[in-house]
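Students often ask why we bother encoding 3D structure as a string. The short answer is that it lets us treat folding as translation between two languages. Here is a chain of 271 residues written in the first language.
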Amino acid sequence: MAMAPLFLAPPLSALWAGKDVFVEVEALPGVEYRAVAGRRTFRTEIEGRGYFVKIHRGVGWLEIFKNLLSLRLPVLGARNEYEAIRQLEALGVATMHAVGFGERGSDPARRHSFLITEELAPTQSLDLAWPTLAPAARRALTARVAQMTRRMHSAGLNHRDLYLCHFLLHTDAPPAQARLSLIDLHRAQSRERVPRRWRDKDLAALYYSARAAGVSRHDSLRFLRGYFGLPLRAIFASETRLLRFLVREATRLDQRYTRKYFNQISTGAST
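And here it is in the second language, the structure alphabet:
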């Protein structure tokens, strides 16, 4: 069954009843967090509560063809993230809570869509929180990340940006209780089964970002045990290719972001 092109939950359903919802969304005031070609993300407040708004205005046919030629499915709007949120909620994986979604336009290159989610606060990204956590909290959170990732992959959903910063730690509860929410799902892919290639890419991004945050080798091994549900000896025997890929991909990402950083410095110095 096709998903309806408009969904509004309270308070939006009452505030915007009988109005052009797309006009109302575009008129929302807020602090801009990100603006890239065809997509804008900002924080707003409605009736004293914080929300994040993502507005997509289409990526254009050139971007669609570039993605297809690279054997990648292009992200055409907010529907992708909205459906991923609904799927994670059904799985019991904590994520954002959507209160508004809309989509209009038949041309996939110019489709206008939006997603509004409740602000997750107070929270801190797990990569920034990690150095301040006690060992017991680190163990609990490692197990929680492994469980969330395993459940997501087992259901056929891969994230495509599975960095540690996209796990938000809720700071209004003791860290040992492992309250985490997974965010930034606009590139997520859903199938009957996650291909090994995309599973490994998710795990490599997580390993790279965890290493950069100072996650220890012991906690990395604890993650593997929790993710695969096997003793380490069995994992080393069956996942040799994956383990080699994790190290190789982490090195590649290190080099990529180092080049990007120095390019930004040199560009700034020349202007």
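Translate back mentally: The chain has a mean pLDDT of 88. Keep this in mind for the problem set.
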